[in-house]
Design a protein that fits this description.
232 residues, alpha/beta, Nucleotidyltransferase, domain 5, 2 domains
Length: 232
Amino acid sequence: MRILAVESSGMVAAAAIMEKGRLLGEFLLDHKKTHSQQLMPLIAQLLNSLDMTLSEIDVFAVSQGPGSFTGLRIGIATVKGLAQAAGKQVVGIPTLDGLAYNLSCREGLICPIMDARRDQVYTAVYRSDGSDIERLEDYMAIPVKELAEKLKGYDEHVIFNGDGIPVYWDVIKAELGDKARPAPANLLMQHASSVARLALVEAQQGKTQSYNELIPFYLRKSQAEQKFAHMG
């Protein structure tokens, strides 16, 4: 089975192709251009580099949130368009699962944190056995200090990754001390290859869906939606 996965939930724009568990290629950019400019050229270049066409992809996958509202919409719209054109199924992978899977080879607690603004993070807590991850807590949008209090209850070291690291690391270290450890730089941000790997497992279990069923997973409403709801 051949998976093409897209990641655009944050600053990173990435695409990866995986076949039978083997990563054939991944292109990743963490730069200032917008995803609307980056994503399709990345995908086209990746397919071209592997001498593949869309018709040779079996399943399309995408990081479906939480994350940047604009980035998620671009990524999901892109994958829906590709899947429709190729007549193939899709898989949506929670962004936090993908981030946690970056660190699946490290045993212990894993806590991806994404900056949700206003001193809050999108997060969940996972445990890895050195190969696979298990989610221990529900997906959350909570104040970073509240997350730190929750993690104190585990009484063990925690490795963190995600774009919340540069924003909230001082707070996390102040609360957790030496129990908190940052991921290495190459595993800090989202990877399309992690989305591809998790999507491959889902697809092998028959957990795919039609492109028109794919929707973003926001965790909370955008500021504009919140303001509109408050006015109502």
